[in-house]
Specification:
29% helix; Rossmann fold; 4-stranded antiparallel beta sheet; 22% strand; globular
Amino acid sequence: MLRIDNLKVGDLPVLTFAVADGECLAVEAPSGGGKTRLIRAIADLDPSEGQIFLDGAERREMTGPAWRRLVRYVAAEPGWWTETPRGAFPAEDVAARRIARLLPALGLSTELLDRPIALLSTGERQRLALARALIDAPRVLLLDEPTAALDPVSSGLVVEEIRYQMLSGVSVILVSHDAAEVERLAHARLQLAPIRPGATGETAAANAAPGRPGGAP
């Protein structure tokens, strides 16, 4: 379980919530409302105050890279540091087996692994970045607009892969402007709002509303 205790990120309210294994929490706010800042802070990529626990272990008990190995942030516009996607994937046999499952599940050919990044479409790069994030089996996925650049067919494949990960026990925090996607995946929703002038730092203007994924079995 991922548990957030009294987390303070920028001008967002102090937040306390939890995401159980295999469940998805959708974070909702207007554009510029702090959704990306929140999930980047949970990944220990941006500064924050408060505590974040994964299965009882607090994030400061491990190094940043070790934490992000377990709590994986997938950006809306993922970066690449290699000439081709293959260089960003581990070479071990277990990784090769996972690649052989993940790429077809996301509608991708293994030939794309050796194509220069610059020649890939935005949607191909986005799906390859999701495969890259999943290759070493993180415990938590922090997804920032995971289908924003995709056509309906590719979007459907990504949603099904996210559901597959949830069935495997992965916890998901989702940022998405796609209402149908949120409806299919989210077990609960967290509404963000900045602290109003005059309110104290202890006043949380965020509410988690329970729900049930519309597409869940």
